[in-house]
């Protein structure tokens, strides 16, 4: 095996799971190079259109419509299209869970163990700006990376939290139409990709994580509305972390049922529990994963009771009204929320809450009110289309000013670009990067310092 040392206990268990002949194919897969993938942001561009503008060498991932392999020596994170939020870098098999959860625009969706955001970004794209996505991670530091990725992708209807699942259940109750749990696990499926996972595995094996997983799933079931779907996934092979967890849910919750996931070329059925889906690195071009889709049965009295949460329109500060007049993108002013001079646009499904959660973000950050003026925020730029802003400056990817802008430098306009005054939306190849403020032939850079090209 390629510089990957695993215990004999693990190898024996995999031999028992796969059988002697297939086990040899699995062990041989360790000699192969790991695979690299990116997933196109369908909120901004179709996969077909992206292929027309990218200079990356890409090959389709057969089971992911907007997923592609790229060569390891390429550097897609050092590309202006990455900074425009056109794609997310993600291991190919890890793209599968979010692709299989049947999210529809308008759903209330919870990604319970969401950082760093690979699955949340896809769930948010599926919502198409409708409904609400709550992305949670118990680690506050990881939740900060999650927030950046969601905002980079231009997902406006988000709430990012850093809480225990039990606290979310206490606040939300039975609220969500769709829930994704990419559970913390022993990581057996990632050994080829990340050798450090082997060290972690030796410290905490499958039995340790199975206890955590059962608790997480139990809390999630209680947050799912009747008729709602829950997708459980791990990147491990252990039965006690995979099929056994699902059996436990079905045994303890009579209102939950297993919905069979469709097999595709290279995918495997569950081990002893048909309807689940397994990915093995010797059968597909990707790492290891497990998935199961559950549905909460409808009850006779489960019709949703509509609450009258209609808010009266409140007068907005004049400087905010003036800025919004520059936009052709419609905003429901009843959903604009101002706290300590910071202006947010709440998701349409955002509930009133008596008790507070640890929110890193509630909705779309629009900007700041500062001494009689309004300064738009970076996340607002990322949700706009060029035609939705009054003053737009578009450069192609080869223009050296694109990188200079992303580094935070002041930019000089060319004579043919004319004079600019006030807020400008800076774009690359027709996709927003951020704001600048024009002063004649000079653009004062307003690109967010924490996102700059390093």
Concise account of the structure shown:
The chain is of the alpha+beta class and 454 residues long.
Q: What is the mean pLDDT?
A: 94
Beta-strand content: 25-35%
Number of helices: 14
Multimeric organization: single chain
Helix content: 25-40%
- The total of beta strands comes to 23
Strand count, sense and closure of the main sheet? 10 strands, mixed
Q: What Rg do the Cα atoms give?
A: 23 Å
Could you give the topology of this structure?
Elements: H1 8-18, H2 20-28, E1 36-40, H3 47-53, E2 58-60, E3 67-70, H4 80-83, E4 87-89, H5 96-100, E5 108-111, H6 118-127, E6 132-136, H7 140-152, E7 158-161, H8 165-172, E8 176-182, H9 196-203, H10 206-222, E9 224-234, H11 243-252, E10 256-259, E11 268-269, E12 277-279, E13 289-296, H12 318-324, E14 336-339, E15 342-345, E16 359-362, E17 364-370, E18 373-376, H13 378-383, E19 392-395, H14 400-406, E20 411-412, E21 420-428, E22 431-440, E23 442-445
Parallel strand pairs: 5-6, 5-8, 6-7, 8-9, 19-21
Antiparallel strand pairs: 1-3, 1-4, 2-3, 7-16, 9-13, 10-13, 11-12, 12-13, 14-15, 15-17, 17-18, 20-23, 21-22, 22-23
Helix pairs in contact: 1-2
């Amino acid at each position: 095996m390629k510089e990957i040392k695993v215990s004999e206990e693990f190898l024996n268990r995999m031999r028992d799971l796969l059988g002697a002949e297939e086990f040899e194919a699995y062990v041989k897969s360790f000699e192969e190079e790991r695979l690299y993938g990116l997933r196109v942001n369908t909120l901004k561009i179709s996969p077909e259109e992206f292929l027309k503008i990218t200079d990356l060498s890409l090959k389709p991932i057969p089971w992911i419509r907007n997923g592609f392999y790229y060569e390891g020596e390429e550097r897609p994170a050092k590309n202006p299209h990455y900074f425009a939020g056109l794609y997310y870098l993600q291991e190919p098999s890890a793209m599968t869970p979010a692709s299989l959860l049947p999210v529809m625009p308008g759903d209330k969706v919870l990604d319970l163990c969401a950082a760093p955001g690979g699955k949340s970004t896809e769930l948010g794209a599926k919502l198409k700006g409708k409904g609400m996505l709550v992305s949670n991670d118990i680690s506050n530091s990881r939740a900060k990376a999650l927030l950046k990725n969601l905002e980079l992708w231009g997902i406006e209807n988000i709430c990012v939290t850093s809480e225990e699942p039990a606290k979310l259940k206490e606040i939300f109750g039975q609220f969500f139409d769709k829930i994704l749990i990419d559970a913390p696990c022993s990581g057996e499926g990632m050994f080829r990709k990340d050798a450090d996972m082997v060290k972690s595995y030796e410290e905490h094996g499958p039995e340790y994580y199975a206890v955590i997983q059962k608790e997480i799933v139990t809390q999630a079931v209680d947050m799912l509305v009747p008729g709602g779907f829950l997708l459980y996934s791990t990147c491990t092979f252990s039965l006690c972390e995979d099929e056994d967890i699902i059996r436990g849910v079905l045994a303890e919750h009579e209102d939950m049922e297993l919905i069979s996931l469709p097999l595709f070329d290279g995918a495997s059925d569950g081990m002893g529990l048909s309807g689940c889906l397994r990915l093995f690195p010797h059968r597909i071009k990707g790492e290891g994963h497990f998935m199961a889709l559950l549905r909460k049965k409808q009850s006779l009295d489960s019709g949703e009771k509509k609450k009258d949460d209609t808010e009266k329109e409140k007068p907005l500060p004049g400087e905010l009204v003036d800025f919004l007049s520059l936009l052709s993108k419609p905003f429901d002013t009843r959903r604009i929320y101002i706290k300590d001079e910071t202006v947010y646009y709440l998701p349409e499904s955002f509930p009133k809450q008596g008790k507070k959660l640890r929110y890193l973000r509630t909705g779309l950050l629009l900007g700041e009110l500062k001494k009689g003026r309004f300064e738009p925020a970076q996340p607002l730029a990322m949700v706009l289309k060029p035609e939705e802003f009054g003053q737009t400056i578009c450069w192609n990817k080869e223009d050296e000013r694109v990188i200079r802008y992303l580094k935070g430098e002041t930019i000089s306009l060319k004579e043919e670009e004319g004079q600019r005054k006030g807020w400008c939306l800076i774009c690359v190849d027709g996709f927003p990067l951020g704001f600048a403020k024009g002063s004649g032939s000079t653009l004062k850079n307003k690109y967010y310092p924490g996102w700059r090209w390093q």
